[in-house]
Design a protein that fits this description.
Strand order of the largest sheet: 1-2-3-4-5-6-7-8
Number of strands: 8
CATH class: Alpha Beta
Structural class: alpha/beta
Largest sheet: 8 strands, parallel, barrel
Bound molecules: pyridoxine-5'-phosphate
Helix content: 40-55%
Order of helices and strands: EHHEHEHEHEHEHHEHEHH
Radius of gyration: 17 Å
Shape: globular
Number of helices: 11
Distance between the termini: 9 Å
Strand content: 15-25%
């Protein structure tokens, strides 16, 4: 089971002072030394944290899987094809949002997502979609040619009744896997709320950022990643 560490918030700290440090590239190396199977960055339209330069440097230096989260725009497609991450995850993006608000609603996409995805795949980039845990979104993800889905765990992490949300995610994960999609999960996952999710065998990858970067303030990033990795390994 794979852990992709989202290092956006290392760049958030850098941008708070418009300094050259802390550098996400340095963070990526530390994350890999801590056992990360991959690195995720979200290049936002407003460039509030990660910038093109970060993406280019990460592509050159990381050993494992580089996942670029991005909105399905022409600008981002051009950047992805230039930078050639191993995969992209398509996410919705609204100006001014604090973090991604929900999955991409595939019933309401204004562009021809099938050809958008096909172009990226044609260049050798794997394509996934961030979706809410909803069966209709799985069917739609298949129709547009996605290879993977990342199930949005935000509602689960906020829920009073986690059991209900866990079953919902589990049902959707099973359906996605049955249809041949690779299943990931992410958003709001921390060192304790991950445990029930780890009992869903169809989820083979996790994308985790904020909790790891926050813990890193006290124990260092390598250690923070290693602790998460141990929890994930311990569950199987
Ligand atoms: N997955 C997606 C699609 C996201 O947008 C984010 C937040 O950038 C994450 C995972 C990671 O969420 P968190 O930082 O809460 O771990």
């Amino acid at each position: 089971m794979e852990l992709s560490v989202n290092i956006d918030h290392v760049a958030t700290v850098r941008e708070a002072r418009k300094e050259k440090f802390p550098d996400p590239a340095y963070a990526a190396v530390e994350a890999e030394l801590g056992g990360a199977d991959g690195i995720t960055v979200h290049l936002r339209g407003d460039r509030r944290h990660i910038k093109e330069r970060d993406l280019a440097v990460l592509k050159q230096i990381i050993r494992n899987d580089l996942n670029l989260e991005m909105a399905a725009t022409d600008e981002m497609a051009r950047i992805a094809v230039g930078a050639m991450p191993d995969r992209v995850t398509l996410v919705p993006e609204a100006p001014g949002e604090v973090t991604t608000q929900g999955g991409l609603d595939l019933s309401n996409v204004k562009i021809d997502l099938k050809s958008y995805i096909s172009d990226l795949k044609g260049k050798g980039i794997r394509v996934g979609i961030f979706i809410d845990p909803d069966m209709a979104q799985i069917k739609a993800a298949l129709r547009v040619g996605a290879e993977s889905v990342e199930i949005n765990t935000n509602e689960y992490t906020q829920a009073k009744n986690r059991e209900e949300e866990t079953s919902k995610i589990s049902r959707v994960a099973k359906a996605a896997r049955r249809e041949g999609l690779v299943v990931h999960a992410g958003h709001g996952i921390d060192y304790t709320n991950i445990l029930p999710l780890l009992s869903i065998p169809e989820i083979t990858g996790y994308s985790i950022g904020f909790a790891i970067v926050a813990r890193a303030l006290f124990v260092g990033l390598r250690q923070a990643v290693s602790e998460m990795k141990e929890i994930i390994k311990g569950a199987r």
